Amino acid sequence: EAQVTQNPRYLITVTGKKLTVTCSQNMNHEYMSWYRQDPGLGLRQIYYSMNVEVTDKGDVPEGYKVSRKEKRNFPLILESPSPNQTSLYFCASSFGVYLDTGELFFGEGSRLTVL
Amino acid sequence: KNEVEQSPQNLTAQEGEFITINCSYSVGISALHWLQQHPGGGIVSLFMLSSGKKKHGRLIATINIQEKHSSLHITASHPRDSAVYICAVRGGSQGNLIFGKGTKLSVKP
Predict the structure, then answer these.
(1) What is the mean pLDDT of each run of 10 residues along chain A (115 residues)?
(2) Number of A:B CB contacts under 8 A?
(3) A40, A58, A105: residue with CB nearest B96
(4) Fewer CB near the last or first residue (10 Å), C or N of chain B?
């Protein structure tokens, strides 16, 4: 089954404790991206990757890191989480970014709470 | 001012009604997405378009590039259409996506 898988789905952690949210897709997609969703603010893009070893900042990259060493995986790293990173996180992927390749497939979301 | 504005924020309709959700944007774009977020939180892609009109079942999406405006129409609405509908635009850097804040639709039986 074609899917985007995020882990963990739920996490409660404490300020400063490094964590990684994994994202994996099995559709051979080149484009992958991370978003956070907050009440009243909607979805905002954190980072995206157009292909292996190519990553770019979105609108809210501060406090996050990403890497794209393999096509299927795009982990989101919070080196020193803070309470303002408490949010619902989504990973998404697509073949590309053009009309015939740009349909987005989303993971189920990861709810992160930083105390 | 937000770069992507949706209206209305909230919409309640009776089953069977024709529904229109609007999206206006202020930046140059290469394409526009309409997404649906279910009450359980999952997000699915409905349309991606850069001109004209697309139709899938009871859903129709239109875009006017000159006016920087897109609409999502739902014909013969049904309670299962209740969800948040989100507009997102791809800017000049095509990997970048900017989202509207969503329109929460509730369809009553």
Answers:
(1) 95 96 97 96 96 95 97 97 98 90 95 97
(2) 67
(3) A58
(4) N
B49 touches chain A (CB under 8 A): yes
d(CA A88, CA A105): 17
A5 touches chain B (CB under 8 A): no
Q: Give the β-pairing of B31-37 and B52-56.
A: unpaired
φ, ψ for residue A5, nearest 5 deg: -115, 125
Q: How many Å lie between the alpha carbon of A82 and the closest alpha carbon of chain B?
A: 24
pLDDT tens track for B10-68: 999 999 999 999 999 998 888 999 999 998 889 999 999 999 999 999 999 999 999 99
- Tokens linked to B31: 């394409």
DSSP state of A101: T
